[in-house]
Amino acid sequence: MAPGGLFWWVGAGVLIVLELLSGTFYLLMIALGCIAAAIAHIAGATADVQFAVAAVVALAAVLVLRRSRFGRKARKEASRNPDVNLDIGQTLTVPAWQQRRARVTYRGAQWDVELAPGEPEDAQTYEITELRGSCLVVAAKQPARHHAKPL
Length: 151
Fold this sequence. Notes:
Elements: H1 3-22, H2 26-42, H3 47-67, E1 91-92, E2 101-106, E3 109-115, E4 126-132, E5 135-140
Parallel strand pairs: 3-5
Antiparallel strand pairs: 1-4, 2-3, 4-5
């Protein structure tokens, strides 16, 4: 194998390893372009044709990925996204409700709390599901279920 072909195979290998670390599939699509260029090299294509093949195949693969379900990220509203707001998923207790609203101490400050639609007022613990300004929207926290192992 000529050194020019080795360039494409090494490039594809490096991109695949980097893809395993990132998990986005985009580097894998570019690696496909490198593999296509390596095949073009084996077929005897000149260097400029190899680069053109790599670019066209990688671009086509990226466009196909973008249109697939793997290329689209589901966007959450910031008020409900635990990656944006670390309070989402935290628990608190509400001693008493007044028309599905309450005022509680959370993280050392007083907060307004609103019960999410359809949630019961008699739960022991509540989980924050959304943050609207200074109002915490909560839902009843489901108890962890422990499965008994048969003897």
